[in-house]
Fold Glycosyltransferase.
Amino acid sequence: MNDLLLSEFQKADLFVLNSNLETFGCVVIEAISCGCPVISTRCGGPEDIITEENGILVDVGNDDQLCNAMNYCLDNLSSYEPQKMHEYVNKKYGFDSIGVQFRDVYNEALQTKT
């Protein structure tokens, strides 16, 4: 993540991803890692990332849900714990976690070849 993006996430109260389709959602992970709560549509990737502790999911195209979620988050910013959000991302998507997962897949692939 570049320094400008990092700085903006750290200053922001909330990040909103109002998308029709996402394959994964790197920007969601980056925002959460910076302690910024996220509101996102259920558009393919964020459903596996966002929890009650770091944000809210809304249905694609549902403007009422989106507006309500933004109001809720802004009214309850103190309920989000930036350090815990960062730790969640580091534990689930950090180098150590992902490296172990790649190693396990690689080792499994090697074992099925023999």
User: Anything to note?
Assistant: Helices lie at 3-11, 26-33, 63-75, 82-93, 95-113. The two ends are 40 Å apart (CA to CA).
